[in-house]
Structures are given as structure tokens and as C-alpha cells.
Amino acid sequence: MQIILTHEQADFDALASLIGAALLSEGALPLLPRKMNRNVRAYLNLYSAGLNLLEQAELPSGPVEQVTLVDTQSLVTIKGIGRNTRVRAVDHHARRADLPEGWSFEGERIGACTTLFVEKLRQENTPLEVNQATLLLLGIYEDTGSLTYAGTTARDVQAAAYLLEQGASLRIAAKYLNPPLSAEQRALCDTLLANAQSHSIQGQSIILAKARAVELVDEISSVAHKLRDLLDPDALFLLVQTSEGVRLVARSTTDLVNVAEVAVQFGGGGH
Prior knowledge:
Layout: E1 2-5, H1 12-24, E2 29-30, H2 38-47, E3 66-70, E4 86-90, E5 104-106, H3 113-123, H4 130-144, H5 154-165, H6 170-176, H7 183-195, E6 197-201, E7 204-212, H8 221-231, E8 235-242, E9 245-252, H9 259-264
Helix pairs in contact: 1-3, 1-4, 3-4, 3-5, 4-5, 4-6, 7-8
């Protein structure tokens, strides 16, 4: 049995990469993570038809021979995975230095992991339904800030243009991008804003903020986006105490600050 996995607290890039990998891997089963961002879950509530995504409880019994891991290089525990399971990671973050021995890695530093799959779908001339093209477009738009973030490449733009040619709906995409914060996220945002410290390091504006939010169930990434837009720093680092431990969320608006390299020092660097 072959399965496709992504990271927990999945965003649209993770979900779209899951679908992209499934379209390119006949017979592989795409499994939804246990936790997803609110806008991703809201999208699936209306547009999951035809995507053939499985909840983890629906995974058939039996050994997993191969895992394709998308938009992450961290493997979650799934029944059927054993020491003989082959793992192939496809990611747009830098390759982990401690990637487990025997894993294969594919990827390049581009704006969205989804772009890697769209390029292959285009090369193979794979037909896309409107719903599939729209989800893939959402994946690229969310991780590139609708093609405005500093990490966006020409390849991301070309992939988005191709999806529009395939019928992707900008109306639907706009509905699910940049959702309003929940009451809990707004409270967290206010606390982080009150605790924010601004530093100038080698001419770059760096903002650090911390907060405690052990009751929070929604994603922190949306809060990070709001604070980045509001404060407009060169880089933003958030440290939030949650029920699962301290989470570090980092964002950059310039190529001069590689927040992924900083996050690597704390065991992160890409989901």
C-alpha cells in the first residue's frame, strides 16, 4: 500500500500538494492530517467532492510500503508504517541536515510546494477538473501571498497562470484566502502586539513577540500574517506557549533575512 501524507495544522499548500501528488501517483492514497487550518476545513466542507481524500481512520489495514511526504520532512505516526517503509519527501523548504537515512528527497526553494506538482502535471498534460485546479491555485496563492511574498519565484507565477488556463476559479480562491481571525486568534494577536519588541540587526527591522495561549485550537500562522501586514518588519518571530509546547512561527518579507535558517537552530526550518 502506498500513501501520501503532509504536516499537521495543514494549510492550502499542504492540502494542494497532497492532491497534486495523488494525481501523479496512481493508486496512492492521500490521507488528510488530523488538524487543518480553519479556512482549509471550511473549503473541504463544500468542495471535497471528487478529491478522493481519506480520513486517517479510513485507511485500510495492512503494511505501508511507501510514503510520499509533501510540504514537510517530518513523518507523523500512521498505522501500517514500519522500518521497511520507504519514504520520499517532496518539499520546497531546505533539505533537513538530519533527514533519516534511506529517505529520498526532492525539492527546490520556491514559493509553494504545490508549484512542484503543478509543473509535473503540466509536463504530463494531466487533465484537471475545475475543483482540482482551484485547490492547486489556492495552495500557490496562500504560500506566496497571492504572488507577493519575497520568496515567490517566476515558476510560481507560471504555475498559477497555467491553473487559470485550466479553469481555476479566482472567485472561490478569494473567498478562502486571508480569513478573519477567530476570537481566540484576535486575543492572541493583541497579546503578541502588546509584547512585541523591535530590534535593528545589521540594518534589518526584526520583531520578536511572545504569548501564552494554551487554550488555542486554531492556527498561529494566520496571526503571524496579520502581524506582518500590520507591523511591516523585515522579519517576524513569534513564540507561543500552547498545550503542545512552545511553537516558533517565523516570517520574512525580504531575501536579506532567511528565517528558515534561524528556525533550524530550534529544530524547525519548515513545518
